[in-house]
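INFO batch 0412 | record 1 of 1 | parsing
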Amino acid sequence: MRTMLSWSSGKDCAWALHVLRQTPGVEVVGLLTTINAAFDRVAMHGVRRELVEAQAAAAGLPLTRIALPWPCSNDTYAQLMGACIAQLRADGVEAVAFGDLYLEDIRAYREQQMARSGLTPLFPLWGQDTRLLATRMLDGGLEARLACVDPRVLPRDLAGARFDAALLDRLPVGVDPCGENGEFHTFAHAGPMFSAPVPIAIGETVERDGFVFTDLLPA
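INFO prediction complete | emitting tokens
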């Protein structure tokens, strides 16, 4: 099954790539990401486009970018995504995979969108215990940095921190170990899904739109 993987630049989609490559009958043929055209960064994560392109190169996969205007209405998003999905199907893609873990409403939305397109949605990480999953990622060699944190639930100084065992121990009670509820977003820069690490440097940390972002720079 020729499969595109929805790519946010974070640890969950990176680990999903690792899992999919070990799944019989699935061939990952590319990565699909959305870019905020006004800032040239991945939507929500705030990661620079150059770093996402470096991830794709390290993964040995082509990157399909959907440029989103800012601000972007739901209708505009649906139109742009629909046009891209239609092109993917015309190119022989059969499925789109997502790194979602357990949020039922998000899965239902994706399944609805894919049903309209005729593509099969895949959820290779779905339903796993997120603490065990986080530990499995780290034991498997995944390395990531927190690119964005929600200061309402996490200390601001965790922006830019390594995603590691020490971080997991610091998470307040109620915060998901994988940040599935939006508590934090990551950038994966090394691991078994990449042929080589993506070199990064830590840039400025700023607060914007209620979130704290650390600018990760190509090293």
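INFO post-check: The helical segments are 11-20, 49-59, 74-90, 104-117, 130-139, 165-170.
INFO record closed
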